[in-house]
Amino acid sequence: MTTKYTPGPWKIKWYDGYSTIGSADGHGWLARVLLRKTKTNNVEEKDANTRLIAEAPAMAETLRPLADDRIITASDREALAREARAILARIDGNPKEG
Fold first, then answer.
1. pLDDT digits (tens, 9 = 90+) for 43-93
2. I need a surface site. Which of 11, 19, 37, 51 has the fewest CB within 10 A?
3. Taking the model in full, what pTM does it have?
4. What is the spatial distance between Cα 57 and Cα 1, in angstroms, rounded to a whole number?
5. CA angle 63–66–72, rounded 5-degree value
6. 3-state SS of the chain: helix, strand, coil percent to 5?
7. Which residue spans within 1-98 are E strands per DSSP?
8. 74 DSSP 8-state letter
């Protein structure tokens, strides 16, 4: 399916104090995620935000069948639930749980 956004998966490069999100095909960077200015400069929050943004294409593809007017079978529901768990595990930084 053709989309208006850069197709996924998106990859993350981690740096000290920031991270970048780019297309997996290596044709450029899409976003830079910085530490939010707080008293603690929470690196864990920045990393979680990065993972959340990087999963946007996977989330869109997982949600698409639910938004279409087609009938979803029990098998489809199970596959969507598995993919949703995998996405959430990657967002939470636990890719092996998904």
1. 888 889 999 999 999 999 988 888 887 778 888 889 999 999 999 999 999
2. 37
3. 0.81
4. 12
5. 135
6. 45, 15, 40
7. 10-14, 18-23, 29-34
8. H
List the beta strands (DSSP E) in 1-88.
Answer: 10-14, 18-23, 29-34
Backbone φ and ψ of 76, nearest 5°? -60, -45
Q: What burial letters (b/e) apply to 20-57, b meaning 16+ CB within 10 Å?
A: bbbbeeeeeeeeebebeeeeeeeeeebbebbbebbbbb
Q: Which residue in 44, 60, 59 sits closest to 92, CA to CA?
A: 44
Measured torsion, CA atoms of residues 92, 16, 7, 61, in degrees rounded to the nearest 10: 10
Distance of CA 10 to the CA centre of its chain: 7
